[in-house]
Automatic annotation (TrEMBL):
<dbReference type="Pfam" id="PF14687">
    <property type="entry name" value="DUF4460"/>
</dbReference>
<keyword id="KW-0175">Coiled coil</keyword>
<protein>
    <submittedName>
        <fullName>T cell activation inhibitor, mitochondrial</fullName>
    </submittedName>
</protein>
<dbReference type="InterPro" id="IPR027986">
    <property type="entry name" value="TCAIM"/>
</dbReference>
<dbReference type="GO" id="GO:0005739">
    <property type="term" value="C:mitochondrion"/>
</dbReference>
<feature type="coiled-coil region">
    <location>
        <begin position="400"/>
        <end position="430"/>
    </location>
</feature>
<dbReference type="InterPro" id="IPR028031">
    <property type="entry name" value="DUF4460"/>
</dbReference>
<feature type="domain" description="DUF4460">
    <location>
        <begin position="22"/>
        <end position="131"/>
    </location>
</feature>
<dbReference type="Pfam" id="PF14688">
    <property type="entry name" value="DUF4461"/>
</dbReference>
<feature type="domain" description="DUF4461">
    <location>
        <begin position="186"/>
        <end position="489"/>
    </location>
</feature>
<dbReference type="InterPro" id="IPR027989">
    <property type="entry name" value="DUF4461"/>
</dbReference>
Length: 495
């Protein structure tokens, strides 16, 4: 039976691939076709798994950018994009694909997109995640009909599986899930009603570890004369304490090597090295031997740091005095070597293109270079985000036409940051919060919007003494932090 099912899937996939050459898929059609995929990977379903949730959130952003670029007329500069998603598990027995299944009900799937049209991209995504493409058969029929009006019309009814199909296979009915989600729209007060007790207990249980974490951090900063100790990911308190204990043991066993980090910031992250901003990166999966090697190599990085600064100056000169910057909160974590390589590649291309910027005409403006973007953009805080592989004629036009708007945004940046800080302090005072913070992916404008609305609510019984995080979804973290979406719904206006 399963062999027959796989044969049917392969046959449908081949037939649908033939459609790619006839007509491009519309953006709305692509979203509808990917509905099962979005249900399987949406970050809201990974509230108790912060790491997997963050990976899916970042991968969705990159995928959406890829899909947007596919719809741009005349866009030809495509770069293969590798994505990793954690997919909610439905029925392991129906898949022969070798994937990494976890006991938590999801599996890790990695794939690379190289397609140049929406339909073949949608097919690649669904097949890579072992999701059915049967619902695309109706799309195939409509496309063939529109491209060959003289041919006989196919059966007009789109395929819709009987409810027994989902009962016997274990698959979830996307339409039923969507209807249920719409019926049970979560409001802030209702969610707090259901989760406040759980968060309060988790927070109470975590208090001794929180005190231990603060003590360990202060001791290590003082002992090693570090500027700061930070974490790249939202690891739990117990995990962070364990990492600090490991660093403390290293300092006791090999006291000489960590002294090279004097005055620097140490960041616990996924890999070891020196970051683009000059911070010491300690990979949480590495053993003490790797950490010791990094500390010993720190003095040798000084020459590479000088080369990075020199390249930034050269690029700035070519771009009319615009300043090259690296924003840790907004960009992927890069090693110093990776950042140097990006700068060097961009500089060589910019030098050969002979950009006609007037010297110092763009002084005061900022740009960020990113290797995984396809089109330039202007951030709400005023800096340009430029793809390293962009077309320089398009870049020239984009910067010139948006320069004035960028200056205006930069002038308002301090005002925006100040307003955000004031609103956070006001909300902390009003609700007697222990802490109010946001995830890096939440913008200042979104944070301001959320805090203004919070100050209009009467939520004191729920939030007193809590740690509140403004995010993109609802969840209670393992240490009791409450996460709410920045655009949460108020129960006062629901019907």
């Amino acid at each position: 039976m399963f062999c027959h099912w796989e044969a049917v899937k392969r046959l449908c996939f081949k037939k649908l691939q033939q459609v790619v050459q006839t007509r491009a898929l519309s953006g709305a059609d692509a979203i509808n076709a990917l509905r099962p995929f979005y249900f399987a990977v949406h970050p809201d379903f990974f509230g108790q798994h912060p790491r997997e949730r963050e990976i899916n959130e970042n991968s969705l952003k990159r995928l959406n950018g890829y899909l947007e670029n596919l719809q741009k007329p005349g866009f030809r500069s495509f770069k293969p994009i590798q994505l990793t998603f954690y997919v909610r598990e439905r029925e392991q027995n129906l898949s022969n694909v070798q994937e990494s299944f976890s006991s938590s009900g999801f599996r890790a799937v990695s794939f690379t997109l190289r397609t140049r049209d929406l339909l073949s991209t949608v097919l690649d995504i669904l097949n890579s995640c072992s999701l059915s493409t049967e619902h695309l058969q109706s799309l195939s029929n409509s496309v063939n009909t529109s491209s060959n009006p003289g041919t006989q019309k196919p059966f007009p009814r789109p395929i819709k599986w009987d409810k027994t199909y989902y009962s016997f296979t274990g698959f979830k009915d996307p339409e039923e899930e969507l209807e249920q989600a719409q019926r049970m729209e979560t409001t802030l007060s209702s969610w707090l009603d259901n989760n406040e007790k759980s968060a309060e207990k988790k927070l109470k249980d975590s208090l001794p570890l929180r005190e231990e974490l603060d003590r360990l951090k202060d001791e290590l900063c003082c002992q090693l004369q570090l500027s700061d100790i930070r974490w790249q990911r939202s690891w739990g308190i117990a995990h962070r304490c364990s990492q600090l204990h490991s660093l403390s043991r290293l300092a006791q066993q090999s006291p000489e090597a960590p002294r090279n980090a004097k005055g620097r910031t140490v960041i616990f992250t996924d890999r070891s090295g020196m970051s683009a901003t000059g911070h010491v990166m300690l990979g949480t999966m590495d053993v003490h031997h790797h950490w010791t090697k990094i500390f010993e190599r720190l003095p040798s990085y000084s020459e590479l740091q000088k080369k990075v600064l020199l390249l930034e100056d050269h690029i700035s000169h070519l771009l009319g005095g615009i300043q090259i910057t690296y924003v840790e909160e907004l960009q992927p974590t890069l090693t110093l070597e990776e950042y140097y390589s990006i700068l060097d590649s961009f500089y060589n291309r910019a030098r050969n293109s002979r950009l006609p910027f007037h010297p110092r005409s763009l002084r005061g403006l900022l740009i960020i270079l990113e290797s995984d973007r396809y089109a330039p953009s202007l951030h709400e805080l005023g800096h340009f985000i430029i793809p390293t592989s962009c077309d320089f004629s398009a870049l020239l036009w984009f910067i010139i036409t948006n320069a004035q708007q960028a200056r205006e945004k930069l002038e308002k940046k301090e005002e925006l940051m100040k307003l955000e800080k004031q609103l956070v302090e006001a909300a902390v005072d009003k609700f007697c919060l222990q802490r109010l913070y946001k995830e890096p992916s939440v913008s200042s404008v979104q944070m301001i919007h959320s805090c203004k609305r919070l100050l209009e609510e009467d939520l004191l019984p729920y939030l007193q003494g809590m740690h509140l995080c403004i995010s993109h979804f609802y969840s209670v973290l393992q240490d009791g932090d409450l996460c709410i979406p920045w655009n949460w719904k108020s129960g006062r206006h629901t019907q």
